[in-house]
Amino acid sequence: MAARGPGTTGLPAPSPPGLVVRGSRFSHAQTLDRLIAAIAAHGATLFAVIDHTANAATVGLELPPTSVLIFGNPAVGTPVMLAAPSLALDLPSRILVRSTVNRTVDVIYLDPAELAERHGLAGDDVTGLAGLVRIVDDVLR
Question: Which CATH class is domain 19-140?
């Protein structure tokens, strides 16, 4: 029997290691709007919003509302990339907002502690990466 992909059973997909999955009580659109506002309020720059649902539609496929926000702050990112140049592969920060088959909205991001460990960071460098969590906390409270 073939394995089913995540979301085809109506059950939540397991969270891959290194990711944080948090539920939003807001709609997909409201969650996106709140995240965009919080990113700006925290002094970061929104570089792009990727609408995977719209992209899927261009090739005749359907995908529940799925968006990725790409953002960063050079004043925060530059020092951590100087401390660990390989971190440039994981920056700028990204947040995935996806609607599930159960009509809930998930906010998913890379765990800053896992990123720090992966790139050998400690101390103040880890604190800089945690700004992402503060942005999400502001949106989901």
Answer: alpha beta
